[in-house]
Write a structure and sequence with these properties.
Layout lengths: L1 E6 L4 E5 L17 E3 L6 E6 L4 E6 L4 E7 L10 E2 L5 E4 L8 E4 L4 E5 L5 E5 L20 E4 L8 E4 L4 E5 L5 E6 L9 E9 L8 E4 L5 E4 L5 E4 L1 E2 L2 E2 L5 E4 L6 E7 L5
Antiparallel strand pairs: 1-2, 1-23, 2-3, 4-5, 5-6, 6-7, 6-8, 9-10, 10-11, 11-12, 13-14, 14-15, 15-16, 17-18, 18-19, 19-22, 20-21
C-alpha cells in the first residue's frame, strides 16, 4: 500500500506499508522520501487513484491529473513523474465540492455543497496515456446519492464501490455502490453503521483497496483498522505510525492496481 502525504511546506512524500496486518515496523525503506520538494500545499484537495494517478483541486477550481510511475519496464517507462502530469482535466468548478474521493478505474466521487453525491470517471488507457479534458466517461457528473452527503465529516473510498463516511457524532458508516454506470438506485449497502461513535475525533481517514482504513489521531498517531463481515479484524486500532501524522495537510492512499 502506498500512501501520499502533503506537509504544510508543500512537500509531497510517499510511504509504503507492506504488511497486511498492523505492524509499526511494516514500512518499506525510503518511506517518507519526497516525490516533490514543494508546491503541493497550493491544492485545496488531493486524492489518489490506482496506477500512481493523483487528482488535485486548485484553489480556483481546476482539477489536475498527476501520475508518478513506478515498477514498470525501466527501459521504456522509467520511474518518476510522467509527461502530462499537472494537466488540467476539469476546467473550473471543482473547488465547489465539499469533498472528493477517488476509487479504482478512474472513478471520482464528489460531494456537492447541497449534499448530493456525484459520480465521475476519468478512464486510464495505458502507460502512454496523455491526459486531456475530453476523456471523461459518459455519465460523468451524474447524481448517484440524493442529498445528505454534505452532513458527513469525512468520506473515504475503497475498492468494489465501498465508501466509508463519518457522521458528526462519530459513527462510521459503510456504503457500497455496485454499478459500473451511474444510476441513482445502484446501492447495495446504504449506510450500515460499522462502528458506533469515536470516529469524529480523527483528523483524517483514508482507505486502501482491501478496505483497510488508516486514521490520524489528534496527537499524530496513524492507526490501522480493517472492517470484516463480522466486525473488525484482529488488532484493528493498532498504531502503525508513531507521531507526526497530524502535521500533514493531506493524506491519501493509492490503490493496489498500480505497481
Amino acid at each position: 500500500m502506498r500512501l501520499y502525504t502533503v506537509a504544510s511546506n508543500g512537500m509531497l512524500c510517499w510511504y509504503h506499508y507492506y504488511q497486511d496486518k498492523p505492524d509499526p515496523n511494516g514500512w518499506e525503506a525510503g518511506s517518507g522520501d519526497p516525490l516533490a520538494q514543494g508546491g503541493w500545499d497550493k491544492y485545496k484537495q488531493i486524492t489518489a487513484a490506482d496506477r500512481g494517478v493523483i487528482y488535485a483541486v486548485t484553489q480556483d477550481g481546476n482539477l489536475l491529473w498527476h501520475r508518478y510511475r513506478t515498477g514498470e519496464d525501466p527501459n521504456k517507462y522509467p520511474d518518476g513523474w510522467v509527461a502530462g502530469s499537472g494537466t488540467v482535466i476539469g476546467q473550473g468548478g471543482w473547488n465547489g465540492f465539499k469533498q472528493i474521493a477517488a476509487a479504482p478505474n478512474g472513478v471520482i466521487y464528489a460531494v456537492t455543497q447541497d449534499g448530493n453525491l456525484l459520480w465521475y470517471q476519468y478512464p486510464f488507457i495505458d502507460s502512454d496515456h496523455n491526459p486531456a479534458p475530453t476523456l471523461w466517461a459518459a455519465g460523468s457528473g451524474t447524481v448517484i446519492g440524493q442529498g445528505g452527503w454534505n452532513g458527513f465529516k469525512q468520506i473515504a473510498a475503497a475498492s468494489n464501490g465501498v465508501i466509508y463516511a463519518v457522521t458528526p457524532d462519530g459513527n462510521l458508516l459503510r456504503y457500497r455502490y455496485t454499478q459500473d454506470i451511474p444510476v441513482a438506485n445502484g446501492w447495495a449497502d446504504s449506510g450500515t453503521v460499522i462502528e458506533q461513535g469515536g470516529w469524529a475525533a480523527f483528523k483524517q481517514i483514508a482507505a486502501a483497496s482491501n478496505g483497510v482504513i488508516y486514521a490520524v489521531t489528534p496527537d499524530g498517531n496513524l492507526l490501522w483498522y480493517h472492517p470484516v463481515p463480522d466486525g473488525w479484524a484482529p488488532r484493528s486500532g493498532s498504531v502503525v505510525g508513531q507521531g507526526g501524522w497530524n502535521m500533514f495537510n493531506h493524506i491519501t492512499v493509492q490503490f493496489d492496481r498500480c505497481p
